[in-house]
């Protein structure tokens, strides 16, 4: 595991009550104020485990009774002092206010602090993640389950170690984006991945045959984790990973595919500049979009002269794709 030595000490945990729709936005807010790990408990996922268990899951309704608004977002912080929560409250409130103003249905955004043992957190966290099939030809395998999944020739396997702040790639929009990449990526393509996180989309593009992938994230921890994952998958020579605030440090090299796993406001911020980066006939994939924001993003893409704009849904989430004219 990478990170700031977080698993050698106790942790402070903040638990924010919100809706499923706003859970990702809340998790980003907690990362922005210094959370070294973030996890989401979603009522829909617990109900799935209850009614359609797999991998030996066994749950009771009482396990998710506290998820009254739909989701709890847990942010983990290094244990700096007994009074740490009081020093953080103003920053937390400020970031949550931005989420309130985003237009999402956010629920109460009430929160509470607790102390947790880092060792028990690590054990529980890993227990929640298992290999998952993206499609009939692609599977995500958490690094600690490497060797437990029988390998099939010709199948694409993505080995992912989330580090301390990111998921394993099982979120709905990540799965949709991976499925789209399967049908789009061809040999010798140039691919750009904005907001790479664990690097899972960049790694998938490289494994599917892309000649070169540029992958960026504003978070240095994300870049470090993504580099390790690229090495783990033996594609690090074809992926350039570095820090960038959206497109700020990205070379204009004529990309055939651009993926952007970003919240809606960041999508709208980056969209007008993509024309300088994507070649005619190139495809952009926006993920991380909740259903209520789809119409707004589609309209903006059409205004930016993207054609063949389409939307794929999974639960309340969407991936929106479009082609550059030409």
Automatic annotation (TrEMBL):
GO terms for cellular component: cytoplasm; ribosome. It comes from the Bacteria. Keywords: Cytoplasm, Methyltransferase, Ribonucleoprotein, Ribosomal protein, S-adenosyl-L-methionine, Transferase. Its EC number is 2.1.1.-. Pfam families: PrmA. GO terms for biological process: methylation. The keyword Signal does not apply. Signal peptide: none annotated. S-adenosyl-L-methionine binds at residues 174, 195, 217, 261. CDD domains: AdoMet_MTases. InterPro entries: Ribosomal_L11_MeTrfase_PrmA, Ribosomal_PrmA_MeTrfase, SAM-dependent_MTases_sf. The keyword ATP-binding does not apply. It is found in: Cytoplasm. It catalyses: L-lysyl-[protein] + 3 S-adenosyl-L-methionine = N(6),N(6),N(6)-trimethyl-L-lysyl-[protein] + 3 S-adenosyl-L-homocysteine + 3 H(+). GO terms for molecular function: protein methyltransferase activity. PANTHER family: ELECTRON TRANSFER FLAVOPROTEIN BETA SUBUNIT LYSINE METHYLTRANSFERASE (PTHR43648). Methylates ribosomal protein L11. Belongs to the methyltransferase superfamily. PrmA family. This is Ribosomal protein L11 methyltransferase. It comes from Sulfoacidibacillus ferrooxidans.
């Amino acid at each position: 595991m990478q990170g700031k030595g977080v698993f050698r000490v106790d942790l402070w945990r903040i638990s924010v009550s919100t809706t499923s729709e706003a859970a990702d936005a809340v998790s980003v807010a907690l990362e922005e104020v210094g959370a070294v790990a973030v996890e989401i408990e979603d009522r829909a996922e617990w109900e799935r485990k209850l009614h359609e268990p797999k991998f030996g899951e066994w749950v009771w309704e009482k396990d998710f009774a506290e998820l009254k608004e739909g989701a709890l977002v847990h942010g983990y912080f290094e244990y700096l002092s007994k009074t740490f929560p009081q020093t953080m409250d103003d920053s937390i409130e400020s970031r949550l206010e931005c989420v309130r103003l985003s237009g999402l249905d956010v629920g109460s955004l009430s929160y509470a602090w607790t102390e947790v043992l880092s060792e028990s957190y690590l054990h529980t966290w890993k227990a929640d993640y298992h290999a998952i099939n993206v499609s009939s030809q692609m599977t995500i395998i958490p690094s600690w389950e490497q060797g437990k999944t029988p390998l099939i020739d010709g199948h694409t396997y993505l080995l992912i170690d989330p580090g301390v702040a990111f998921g394993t790639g099982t979120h709905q929009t990540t799965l949709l984006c991976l499925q789209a990449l399967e049908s789009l990526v061809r040999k010798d393509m140039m691919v750009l991945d904005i907001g790479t996180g664990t690097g899972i989309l960049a790694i998938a593009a490289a494994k599917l045959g892309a000649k070169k992938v540029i992958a960026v994230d504003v978070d240095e921890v994300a870049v470090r984790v993504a580099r390790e994952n690229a090495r783990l998958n033996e594609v690090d020579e074809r992926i350039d990973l570095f820090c960038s605030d959206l497109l700020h440090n990205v070379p204009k090299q004529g990309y055939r595919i651009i993926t952007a796993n970003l919240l809606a406001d960041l999508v709208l911020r980056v969209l007008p500049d993509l024309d300088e980066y994507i070649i005619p006939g190139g495809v952009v994939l926006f993920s991380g979009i909740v259903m209520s924001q789809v119409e707004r993003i589609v309209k903006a893409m059409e205004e930016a002269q993207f054609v063949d704009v389409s939307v794929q849904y999974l639960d309340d989430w969407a991936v929106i794709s479009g082609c550059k004219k030409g």
